[in-house]
């Protein structure tokens, strides 16, 4: 069932053209993309500029005078230096409006919903683990699979698209490719679907983006159509132990795929 | 220079204040005071750094934009592609005929079957993949017809949710039974684009809509045949916006509003495909 694309692609046997369906099974990114250093500094600059030009925080609306919230807010935010008319200020006279020095950006410290230590870290007590008001700690962007470099795991490279490649002899790696039988007229996407389920078990939940192929590589003896599909949940578990598989990002693929073949299809793969 | 026809040259020459500047007669009324050089910078858009009201727009990573550009665009292109498709003409306004001068200058006849014209549907290509172009929020506040101070509440609510200053809307007609008076303010509207739009979209699809118990999805019947889908939220649903939920005592009066999702899709089916991949369910 699995055909060796490279050998077929460069074979010189002239027979009736065979039609085959190749599945580009992708796992979409789970988290936001990693920003390049330039983009990161650009956003940081724009963000600081935005904060500098920001209107004064309407404290009188969100923390009304005399309330408990107002008390907590005042504890955290000490008023700026008073514009004393009798004093001389060496680095410019403060311009105070609504207890903000308008010469600088306004730095706010809002009361937290959890108990805080002096250094800003959360004080953990026995009730805080399941409390709704606990501090939200985001998970790490780097997973265990990344540290172990486990290429068979779906939890690696969370910010990138991963593509399924398989191998029978552990040497030549290809995308899953299935021949379309000449007798039974089964459509390309159906062939791809049945092939993936036979190869990777029923514990896989995936869908074809479209029944239309997104690319074709034509040679004298073969027409290889590409079906784009995405994994939603589950795991790819090969039925036979001889089949090896990997989930690889775009820049890792040229190491395993044939060079000409990769150049032919690289525009189909996502950079993110 | 044009020759000016004078009926009496003598009187004109004797006049003291004679201007040599030809008067300019505009076909459209122009407020010349607003053309002063000193006011020119006020005409600049707010995202131009020369504008006095400059506000930076690209202040952070926009994940909805990233998702659309990297994944959705190519998928939509593949899904909507039809081999050998040709341009389908839309339902246009029709001519009354040319056999009479009365028909020639008459207002165009309405489109066949529909009250509104539809656009031509062109074959899908990289340049016309459906895209979310804007979100329009319209809040008609009926209660404000009696208590006009509720207009402020409704504008504050929308500003709190969307991060954009809303515009006031006014009644257009007199309807005595509904206490409508022409020119009376009755709610607000806001048009979201760019980062604010994506922020509102992800709040709506991830935090608000999943928590509405009765919400099954946007109606499949919704749409204006041109790729714009509308739906409404009731005052009870507004409570789920985190900006409102955390300050409930500040917003004692909440008002429902209508949301129109404007897309560049040519048909409602295409728009639904785009919106469902952005996280809106349909039923």
TrEMBL record, chain A:
Keywords: Mitochondrion, Ribonucleoprotein, Ribosomal protein, Transit peptide. Residues 19-146 form the Large ribosomal subunit protein mL46 N-terminal domain. The keyword Mitochondrion applies. One of its GO terms (molecular function) is structural constituent of ribosome. It is found in: Mitochondrion. Residues 126-151 are annotated as: Disordered. Belongs to the mitochondrion-specific ribosomal protein mL46 family. InterPro entries: Ribosomal_mL46, Ribosomal_mL46_N, Ribosomal_mL46_NUDIX. Residues 129-143 have a biased composition (Polar residues). Pfam families: MRP-L46. It comes from Candida tenuis (strain ATCC 10573 / BCRC 21748 / CBS 615 / JCM 9827 / NBRC 10315 / NRRL Y-1498 / VKM Y-70) (Yeast). One of its GO terms (cellular component) is mitochondrial large ribosomal subunit. This is Large ribosomal subunit protein mL46.
UniProtKB/TrEMBL annotation, chain B:
Keywords: Ribonucleoprotein, Ribosomal protein. The keyword Ribosomal protein applies. InterPro entries: Ribosomal_uL5, Ribosomal_uL5_C, Ribosomal_uL5_dom_sf. SUPFAM superfamilies: RL5-like. Residues 185-282 form the Large ribosomal subunit protein uL5 C-terminal domain. One of its GO terms (molecular function) is structural constituent of ribosome. One of its GO terms (biological process) is translation. GO terms for cellular component: ribonucleoprotein complex; ribosome. PANTHER family: 60S RIBOSOMAL PROTEIN L11-RELATED. Belongs to the universal ribosomal protein uL5 family. This is Large ribosomal subunit protein uL5m. It comes from Candida tenuis (strain ATCC 10573 / BCRC 21748 / CBS 615 / JCM 9827 / NBRC 10315 / NRRL Y-1498 / VKM Y-70) (Yeast).
């Amino acid at each position: 069932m699995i055909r060796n694309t490279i050998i077929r692609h460069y074979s010189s046997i002239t027979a009736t053209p065979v039609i085959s369906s190749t599945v580009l099974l992708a796992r979409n990114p789970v988290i936001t993309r990693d920003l390049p250093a330039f983009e990161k500094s650009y956003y940081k600059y724009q963000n600081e500029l935005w904060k500098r030009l920001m209107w004064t925080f309407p404290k009188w609306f969100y923390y009304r005078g005399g309330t408990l919230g107002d008390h907590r807010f005042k504890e955290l935010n000490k008023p700026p230096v008073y514009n004393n008319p009798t004093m001389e200020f060496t680095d410019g006279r403060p311009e105070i409006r609504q207890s903000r020095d308008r010469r600088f950006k306004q730095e706010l410290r809002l009361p937290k919903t959890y108990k805080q230590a002096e250094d800003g870290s959360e004080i953990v007590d026995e009730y805080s683990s399941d409390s709704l008001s606990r501090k939200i700690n985001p998970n790490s962007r780097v997973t265990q699979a990344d540290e172990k470099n486990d290429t068979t795991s779906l939890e690696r490279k969370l910010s990138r698209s991963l593509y399924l490649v398989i191998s029978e002899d552990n040497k030549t790696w290809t995308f899953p490719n299935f021949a379309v039988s000449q007798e039974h007229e089964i459509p390309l996407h159906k062939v791809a679907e049945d092939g993936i389920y036979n190869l990777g078990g029923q514990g896989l939940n995936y869908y074809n983006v479209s029944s239309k192929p997104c690319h074709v590589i034509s040679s004298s003896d073969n027409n290889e159509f590409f079906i784009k599909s995405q994994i939603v949940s589950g795991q790819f578990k090969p039925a036979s132990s001889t089949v090896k598989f990997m989930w690889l990002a775009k820049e890792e693929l040229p190491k395993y795929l044939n060079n000409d073949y990769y150049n032919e299809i690289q525009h189909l793969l996502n950079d993110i | 220079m044009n020759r000016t026809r004078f009926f009496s040259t003598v009187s004109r020459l004797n006049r003291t204040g004679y201007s040599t500047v030809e008067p300019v007669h505009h076909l459209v009324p122009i407020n010349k005071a607003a053309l002063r050089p000193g006011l020119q910078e006020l005409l600049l858009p707010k995202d131009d750094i020369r504008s006095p009201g400059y506000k930076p727009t690209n202040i952070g990573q926009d994940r909805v934009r990233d998702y659309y550009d990297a994944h959705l665009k190519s998928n939509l292109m593949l899904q909507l592609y039809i081999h050998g498709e040709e341009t389908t003409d839309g339902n246009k306004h029709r001519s009354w005929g040319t056999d009479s001068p009365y028909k020639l200058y008459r207002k165009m006849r309405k489109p066949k079957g529909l009250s509104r014209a539809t656009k031509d549907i062109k074959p899908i290509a990289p340049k016309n993949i459906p895209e979310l172009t804007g979100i329009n929020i319209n809040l008609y506040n009926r209660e404000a017809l009696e208590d006009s101070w509720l207009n402020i509440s409704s504008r504050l609510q929308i500003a709190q949710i969307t991060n954009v200053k809303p515009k006031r809307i006014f009644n257009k007609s007199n309807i005595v039974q509904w206490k409508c008076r022409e020119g009376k303010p009755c709610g607000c509207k806001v048009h979201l684009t760019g980062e604010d739009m994506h922020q509102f979209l992800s709040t709506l699809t991830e935090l608000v809509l999943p928590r509405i118990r009765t919400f099954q999805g946007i109606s499949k019947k919704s749409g204006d045949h041109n790729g714009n889908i509308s739906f409404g939220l009731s005052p009870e649903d507004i409570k789920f916006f985190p900006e409102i939920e955390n300050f409930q005592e500040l917003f004692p009066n909440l008002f429902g509003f209508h949301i129109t999702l404007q897309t560049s899709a040519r048909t409602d089916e295409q728009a639904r495909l785009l919106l469902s991949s952005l996280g809106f369910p349909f039923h």
